[in-house]
Amino acid sequence: MGNFLVWVIWFVAAAACLGTGVAVVSMTNPFYSALSLIGNLASLAVLYLLLSAEFLAAAQVLVYAGAVMVMFLFVVAYLGGRADAPWAGGPRLLRGAAVVAAAALLIEIVVVLGLAWGDQLTDPAEVSGSFGDPAQIGEAFLTDHLLAFEITSIVLLVAAIGGVVLGTTPEKEDEVA
Amino acid sequence: MDSAISAGGWVCLLSPLAGAVAIALAGGRISRRAAAWISVLTTFVAFGGALVVFVGLWAADPSDREHVSTAYTWLSAGNFDVELQILVDTLSSTMMLIVSGVGGLIVWYSVGYMEGDDEERRYFAYMSLFVFSMLLLVQAGNFLLMLVGWGLVGLASYLLIGFWHHKPEAVAAAKKAFVMNAIGDATFALGCVLLIWSTGSLEFGDVFGQVDSLSSTTVNLVALGLLGGAVAKSAQIPLHTWLPDAMEGPTPVSALIHAATMVTAGVYLLVRASPIFEAAPDVQHLAAIIGAITLLVAGVVALVQWDIKRVIAYSTMSQIGYMFLAAGIGAYGYAIFHLMTHAFFKALLFMTAGLVIHHLDGEQDIRKMGGLRSIMPRTHVAFAVGGLALMGIPIFSGFWSKDGIVSAAFASGDALGYTLYVAGLLGALLTGLYTTRLYFAVFRGEPSEFVKEHAHEGHGEGPRSMTIPVGVLTVLATIGGLVVIPGVWEPFLHWIDETAEPLVQATVAEDYGTSAIAVSLALIGFYLARRAYEKGRQFVTNPGIWRVLEHKLYFDEAYDALFYKPAAALSVALRRNVEEPVVERSLDEIGSGTIQVGGEVGRVQSGLLRTYAVAVAFAVCVLVVVFVAVR
Amino acid sequence: MDGPDVGWYLIVAAILFGIGALGVMMRRSPLIVLLSLEIMLNAANLTLVAFARQQGNLDGQIFALAVMAVAAAEVAIGLGLIVAMARRRVPLDVDQASALRG
Questions:
Q1: Is C32 near chain B, with CB under 8 Å?
Q2: What are the phi and psi torsion angles at B412 (to 5°)?
Q3: What angle do CA C95, C97, C98 make, to 5 degrees?
Q4: Considering only CA atoms, which of B543, B528, B350 is closest in space to residue B432?
Q5: Which residue has the higher pLDDT, B451 or B335?
Q6: Predicted confidence band at A172 (pLDDT cuts at 50, 70, 90)?
Q7: Would you state the torsion angle of the CA atoms of residues A4, A5, A7, A8, taken in this order, to the nearest 10 degrees?
Q8: Which long-range contacts (CB under 8 A, 24 or more apart) does B458-464 make?
Q9: Do the Cβ atoms of A53 and C62 come within 8 Å?
């Protein structure tokens, strides 16, 4: 019974994920695209939960859906109609090549997965109940991966500064038509 | 004793080089006279060294007369070594004496001859360079060093022929001499290469020891290579056309280089490398045949020349033909003996001609001369002595040497020997003819108009620096031959025999019998020429023959048509069809092609963000495959 | 483990990645391109978490957290760029930003 439930939840979350993903890419109205992305992120959070990554699911919702998407929505609101852009366009060769590339990528990954399914993807490891706990993640961050932690903070600092720089008002002469 | 001999050898070799370097470095800081006397002095120092060597060898035991003195190893490659070494034995000591002795006299003579020339210092530097090079050639202990000397004398010859470089004929003659000598240099070098390949060494001792073990093809090729070099250097047919043109140089140069020494280098080579030639008898006989042909052709052409120096030049060619003939049949002693006597009387003839030319303000055409006997009596005597020696009249030096060669030809028997014998005798007749013709045209009869205008009365016949060497050579030309009197004593022949054993030996009866015939022929020539002169005509009257002889049997024209014109045409054709369209335009094409390709490649940079993204996606696809495959 | 094998999660992530790639390559509005980029990043995150679960190793999740932080930073800059473009009246069309043309 439990297993069946997990399968159902998985199926729903996966379908939602992919559906919203398609919606993001194909909608003309950027507002709808942004909203679809929020849905995408939420369904991904569910998948994380199924994979015993509780902290990550929470972070996903808080940071991604909560902060990043809000930023997006602010910008869409500011841009208003100017954010509209027709679907593709551009050289037809380009469109064909894009589809081919994406399809090729997909097929390759699937093939590789198929090849590896038998050996490496069979038995998932046994994990304790506290796998994915915030405490464990915190401990890992502050001991094994301290360097990554610090560098990430610097990256965020740089982004903040960059944002400020980009936000400066242009001087009248620098106006680019 | 040994060290004295070696020291003498090195002093002899290096003294002229020191002189040349000193004059060259001092440049304009020393007076022209000083440069001249440096050159003379160093050459006589070399002669002193040669004397020391000679005396040392003479005093030594006959079995101990070969000294090799090595300075250091010059080049070394694997098993092959070439040392900077000089070889002092009976043959080379004789050559050293001739080169430095006669050379010293001629350099002394040129002090007076070249006085007043603006570029005297350059002249004397070149003369010392030449003496050094010739000494290097005869003293070399291995073939490579000899080749170095060989090339250097060619260079010195080029520099000295073209000494008056504002005269285009002189420059052209210098180039011609150099190019023809270069042909000989090339064959000589190829011969050396073959020697290295087959024997692994270039030292005389090593090579001669191994000659018997080489295949006959190899030995023949080596001998041919060496013969080619000798033919070019000694102006034998077919590489002879440069020698008459070389008379454009100053007369002392003609005396030293083109009579006494450089042109005899070929003969020296034939004698020095006699073991190789004896192992290749066909090539050796070829040398004799070439000598005989040259002897006759040159003698005939000399009959129609109007330039006093050219007559003597053709005479030189003819006499060297005798030496080649001797070396070709194995009479090495006589070949070197004639080399020595020829050096004496030919240098003497050139120098007296120089006195005449000097006295007549540079005129060389014998048609304008005549009657100088009364105006320049001592020159007349000197010239007469030289002429008698040349014709082979006893007791002058030429008599002993030339007749020895002809009788050796008789003694070698068989068809070749007898043919050479006849050629040699004919040569004696021709020699008598052209020498007498020259003598009468220049010195006898009434003084011509030209002479009366130009002769400097009361100036004497020349400065002492010119007359003393002429005097010395006159004496030598008279008595120099007395070191070989067949049947009485033959020290000179025995001396040379120690290095190069002769293959033929004529009997005393054959010697004197041949001499009788030869002298008679020479006297017949004398009478014929005198009769023609008294009748006021030339000996050769047929205009057709005259024209052929005047054009020197059309050798120059033939070479021009066979070699020069096709080469020039080929160069022009290549220039038009290969150089311009292919090489030049291809350079342009490379430039414009690069620009074009750059333009095409630049189109990849479309500036469209999305193309870049697509490109990245494709790259990732490829990389995935690569990673999977590698794993 | 209950539910589908880890491999199925990976397939979902792969398809998501492909969708995101299509979006990046085919849309002309920089805003939508950014959104598609986010999708790709999330697909990678999913892969990381799935493998973390497979191996029992927390490092995958740590990595995913770092990716999230960097993605946030990148979005901030990207949006700043777009706003700057809009303020300077540059048309918001990726095809027209072709100053890199060679």
A1: no
A2: -80, -5
A3: 85
A4: B528
A5: B335
A6: low
A7: 120
A8: B459/B359, B461/B355, B461/B359, B461/B376, B461/B378, B461/B379, B462/B112, B462/B355, B462/B358, B462/B359, B462/B379, B463/B112, B463/B115, B464/B112
A9: no
Cα distance between residue B42 and residue B21, in whole Å: 11
Residue B508's pLDDT is 78
A97 with B618: Cβ contact below 8 A: yes
Residues of chain A with Cβ-Cβ distance to C72 below 8 Å are 63-64, 67-68, 156, 159
Per-residue model confidence as pLDDT tens digits over B320-329: 999 999 999 8
**For residue B537, which phi and psi values (nearest 5 degrees)?**
-135, 175
Predicted pLDDT at B603? 75
Q: Which residue of A has its CA nearest to C2?
A: A3
Is residue B443 within 8 Å of residue B436, measured between CB atoms?
no
Q: How many CB atoms lie within 10 A of CB B590?
A: 10
- The values of phi and psi at residue B459, to 5°, are -95, 5
C26 part of contact set with chain B, CB < 8 Å: yes
Q: What's the average model confidence in pLDDT over C1-9?
A: 82
Q: For B451-490, b where at least 16 C-beta lie within 10 A, e where not — what string?
A: beeebeeeeebbeebbbebbbbbbebbbebbebbebeeeb
Q: Give the chain A residue whose CA is nearest to the CA of B629.
A: A112
Backbone phi, then psi, for B489, in 5-degree steps?
-150, 145
Q: For residues B170 and B162, is the Cβ–Cβ distance under 8 A?
A: yes
Distance CA B201, CA B195 (A): 7
A67 and C72 within 8 Å at the Cβ level: the answer is yes
Q: Do A112 and B628 touch (CB under 8 A)?
A: yes
- Does residue B187 carry a pLDDT above 90? yes
Interface size B-C, in CB pairs within 8 Å, comes to 32
Question: Which residue of A121, A157, A158, A168 to mutate against C (max C Cβ within 10 Å)?
Answer: A121
Q: Is A109 in the B-facing interface, judged by CB distances under 8 Å?
A: yes
A10 contacts in C (CB within 8 Å)?
3-4, 8
Q: What is the ipTM for the molecules in this complex? A: 0.89
Task: Give the distance from residue A154's alpha carbon to the nearest chain B alpha carbon, in angstroms.
Answer: 28
Q: Does C23 touch chain A (CB under 8 A)?
A: yes
How much is the average pLDDT of B245-255? 89
pLDDT in tens, A83-131: 665 555 566 777 788 888 888 888 888 888 887 777 777 777 777 777 8
